[in-house]
């Protein structure tokens, strides 16, 4: 079978590989819609996972089951399914402890294009099919559904980590597709004022449509000063970090109220340490909590998030700025993600 792969750090190309084998609990799927991700760009061009050779890329796909293992109960060939980017082993001790995303070791619930070939292949393997696949609701648009694989659950997990409550004031740092979903998630959870930090005009427009009440543009001055001015020196209750770097935590602590929480879902690819400002952290006693986590993955979450699209509570189609047709276009779509033209939020390839 063919697949679009990382050949080595900074190198990509089409390769031929043996089709994956289906274990008794697994499924083999073919992609119907795939979306490249900033993580794919980090993997290839920043070498974020270390060197990988001939590893098929991609972790965001809507697919069709072509083979189901002998012990799989709820899925059969022909089923159209949502495949989460994170596919834990649900019978692991880590999953039993509530941290499915770390099943088998820290961050090891992330398997596609990390420990095994990803979804940019003509066929791909899904472990623990009953635990990880979700049926695609009938009639749901494939491109909209593909945002359920990573963008929605990751953005929403930032909101969960920040524990947004009714009436909270919230800052969302970074309004790429994940940050935009954090804005939408904070609004669904009943936040009052939502300050979205970003600069791209189309992202700003869509952030407002998802519920941002104010925009903070980092090109117009220090974001901490802007937030402190807007909140009359008090700061905010919750912060979701969906962009930036190791220095973003310093800024977040400075604009967070005592008792506040920071939820980080941004992948930190560089730097050895994160600095916490001592005085603004209450000299260690400010009750300012920092939580960072990989999204949980799994079928139940996929089904619940899909129901938000089905019931009209969430419209993910706003994220999709570029649509390609045909499997071969995955290369072009990934390069678009790498080059990040100004009007790009998220590309999708329909197959
Ligand atoms: Zn992704």
Automatic annotation (TrEMBL):
<protein>
    <submittedName>
        <fullName>NADP-dependent isopropanol dehydrogenase</fullName>
        <ecNumber>1.1.1.80</ecNumber>
    </submittedName>
</protein>
<dbReference type="InterPro" id="IPR002328">
    <property type="entry name" value="ADH_Zn_CS"/>
</dbReference>
<dbReference type="InterPro" id="IPR013154">
    <property type="entry name" value="ADH-like_N"/>
</dbReference>
<dbReference type="Pfam" id="PF00107">
    <property type="entry name" value="ADH_zinc_N"/>
</dbReference>
<dbReference type="Pfam" id="PF08240">
    <property type="entry name" value="ADH_N"/>
</dbReference>
<feature type="domain" description="Enoyl reductase (ER)">
    <location>
        <begin position="8"/>
        <end position="350"/>
    </location>
</feature>
<dbReference type="InterPro" id="IPR020843">
    <property type="entry name" value="ER"/>
</dbReference>
<keyword id="KW-0862">Zinc</keyword>
<keyword id="KW-0560">Oxidoreductase</keyword>
<dbReference type="GO" id="GO:0050009">
    <property type="term" value="F:isopropanol dehydrogenase (NADP+) activity"/>
</dbReference>
<dbReference type="GO" id="GO:0008270">
    <property type="term" value="F:zinc ion binding"/>
</dbReference>
<keyword id="KW-0479">Metal-binding</keyword>
<dbReference type="InterPro" id="IPR036291">
    <property type="entry name" value="NAD(P)-bd_dom_sf"/>
</dbReference>
<dbReference type="InterPro" id="IPR013149">
    <property type="entry name" value="ADH-like_C"/>
</dbReference>
<comment type="similarity">
    <text>Belongs to the zinc-containing alcohol dehydrogenase family.</text>
</comment>
<dbReference type="InterPro" id="IPR011032">
    <property type="entry name" value="GroES-like_sf"/>
</dbReference>
């Amino acid at each position: 079978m063919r697949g679009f792969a990382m050949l080595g750090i900074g190198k990509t190309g089409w390769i031929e590989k043996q089709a994956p084998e289906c274990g008794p609990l697994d499924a083999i799927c073919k992609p119907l819609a795939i979306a490249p991700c900033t993580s794919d760009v980090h993997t290839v061009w920043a070498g974020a996972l270390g060197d990988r050779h001939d590893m098929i890329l991609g972790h965001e796909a809507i697919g069709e089951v072509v083979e189901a293992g002998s012990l799989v109960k709820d899925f059969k060939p022909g089923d159209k399914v949502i495949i989460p980017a994170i596919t834990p082993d649900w019978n692991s001790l880590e999953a039993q402890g509530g941290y499915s995303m770390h099943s088998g070791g820290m961050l090891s619930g992330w398997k596609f294009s990390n420990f095994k070939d990803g979804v940019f292949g003509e066929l791909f393997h899904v472990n623990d099919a009953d635990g990880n696949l979700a049926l695609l609701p009938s009639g749901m648009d494939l491109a909209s559904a593909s945002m359920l694989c990573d963008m929605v659950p990751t953005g929403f997990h930032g909101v969960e980590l920040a524990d947004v409550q009714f009436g909270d004031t919230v800052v969302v740092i970074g309004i790429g597709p994940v940050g935009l979903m954090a804005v939408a998630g904070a609004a669904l959870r009943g936040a009052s004022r939502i300050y979205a930090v970003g600069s791209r005009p189309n992202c700003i427009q869509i952030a407002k449509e998802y519920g941002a009440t104010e925009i903070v543009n980092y090109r117009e001055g220090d974001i901490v000063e802007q937030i402190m001015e807007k909140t009359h020196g008090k700061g905010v209750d919750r912060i979701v970090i969906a962009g930036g770097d190791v220095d973003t935590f310093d800024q977040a602590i400075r604009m967070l109220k005592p008792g506040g929480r920071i939820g980080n879902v941004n992948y930190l690819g560089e730097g050895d340490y994160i600095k916490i400002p001592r005085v603004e952290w209450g000299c260690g006693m400010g009750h300012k909590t920092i939580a960072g986590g990989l999204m949980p993955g799994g079928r139940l979450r996929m089904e619940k998030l899909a129901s938000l699209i089905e019931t009209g509570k969430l419209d993910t189609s706003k994220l999709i700025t570029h649509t390609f047709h045909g499997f071969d276009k995955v290369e072009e779509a990934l390069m678009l993600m790498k080059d990040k033209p100004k009007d790009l939020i998220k590309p999708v390839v329909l197959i």
